[in-house]
Specification:
7-stranded mixed β-sheet, two-stranded antiparallel ribbon, 6 helices, alpha/beta, binds adenosine monophosphate, single chain
Length: 177
């Protein structure tokens, strides 16, 4: 484990039984409160992705906006938000997917991605991969090419990485459990 991964793991707060019994929620808000650690996270993400010739970074609402946007600024590429249904004002593509209980729907503006552009999908945490797959489907509808997936935290025991392989085998996480 490198030093940054250690710092991330020390800072993350585990909240048992949130939002429902049996889930240990990985609270990343302490990472946001630590200015130096937050900057190190952006720098480390940028170092990993800088040679991938990305055209755009897509961040998933809402915790994917935090370092997704700072990474985009750092790499000097546009940032595009994927939002929950009903939040985006202009014409959007939608994708509905199943959650453990019920379903979720996410959207992207139809004009946000230029056809053929290389897209990095970023979120705070990879669990089962369902959310990142939903984002991938939206990027495909937009004509983008998925260059890879970026996360701060990966819960590897849930097998999300293998499910993402069908879209891109470039999956990077700064810390793994
Ligand atoms: P999944 O679609 O199962 O990969 O879940 C990933 C999404 O749900 C991300 O947007 C995470 O923010 C959130 N999430 C899932 N499980 C957790 C967890 N244990 N702690 C914090 N966030 C989680």
């Amino acid at each position: 484990m490198n030093n940054l991964e250690l710092q991330i793991k020390e800072a993350i707060r585990d909240v048992p039984d949130f939002p429902k019994p049996g889930i240990v929620f990985k609270d990343i808000t302490p990472l946001l409160s630590d200015v130096q650690l937050s900057k190190s996270i952006t720098h480390s993400l940028a170092e990993f992705w800088q040679s991938s010739n990305l055209d755009v970074i897509v961040g998933i609402e809402s915790r994917g906006f935090m370092w997704g946007h700072s990474l985009a600024q750092h790499l000097e590429v546009p940032f595009v938000p994927i939002r929950k249904k009903g939040k985006l004002p202009a014409d959007s593509y939608s994708f509905e997917y199943d959650l453990e209980y019920g379903s979720a729907e996410i959207e992207i503006h139809k004009d946000a991605i230029i056809g053929g552009h290389k897209v990095l999908i970023h979120d705070d945490l990879l669990a089962t991969g369902g959310t990142a797959i939903g984002a991938s489907e939206l990027v495909k509808m937009s004509g983008g090419e998925i260059a890879g997936f970026s996360f701060i935290v990966e819960l590897s025991f849930l097998g999300g990485r293998a499910r993402l392989d069908g879209y891109s085998n470039q999956t990077h996480a700064l810390s793994t459990y």
